[in-house]
């Protein structure tokens, strides 16, 4: 067997000059398959790491029961008030709970600057929204004013989508929304645009929040907070520490992306393999 392999290999190398371009087609095809697979795996791993690096361990997130993705969660206004009254939540200087019912939505929108259409992830911040984001800071412009049609854009979104820089405008269902500032957080939030929760809900026609984010009074307080929510028959919600939620969400996302990546890789590899066979046969 080894002798046959050596003879066939020697014949192939000896005749390589006469079929250089045909051989190059095989090499190029395999290189493209490997390049696509590596690039998609790199993107998946990058997003997974970004999820892992996000989330203050002092915070907990409340989503509707059985939710896998934050964007699919739905918490009614009356239930959000019950959540914010639960024990174990830290208090602000005025005695109010450090909790923020939030909205997250992916919406198609039109950009005034280049008249382009794109999908944008919008997030709503309430009165305590910034307080629950310790790494949040403005890098340009100013903060949006509550109750107004104003947005601020994350640094990553500003570079990824043309037409969402400070001074640009977005067209949402109820008119133009100017972008008045940009911010940085060092996590996934930087890929989104942020505005006032109540104003965004009215604009997009949402009648319920997506999540409720709370600051725990202490790490040990999560058990009390979780028990109060899960034992309340009026609620159908799940509560998790924010880092744990990000790990769970990123794991589900990574598994989903790996199925797509390897599915596309197998299809491309099969096509390249048939191309190789065809070239070798010719």
Written description of the protein model:
This protein is of the alpha+beta class. The chain is 42% helix and 23% strand. The chain has helices at 2-14, 20-52, 77-84, 155-160, 197-204, 221-230, 242-281; strands spanning 59-64, 99-111, 117-125, 137-141, 151-154, 169-172, 175-184, 193-196, 211-215, 237-241. A 6-stranded mixed beta barrel has the order 2-3-8-5-7-6. A hairpin with a 5-residue loop joins strand 2 and strand 3 (117-125). Helix 2 (20-52) packs antiparallel against helix 7 (242-281). The longest helix has 40 residues, at 242-281. The protein is elongated.
Question: Secondary-structure blueprint of this entry?
Answer:
Elements: H1 2-14, H2 20-52, E1 59-64, H3 77-84, E2 99-111, E3 117-125, E4 137-141, E5 151-154, H4 155-160, E6 169-172, E7 175-184, E8 193-196, H5 197-204, E9 211-215, H6 221-230, E10 237-241, H7 242-281
Parallel strand pairs: 3-8, 5-7
Antiparallel strand pairs: 1-9, 1-10, 2-3, 2-6, 2-9, 4-7, 5-8, 6-7
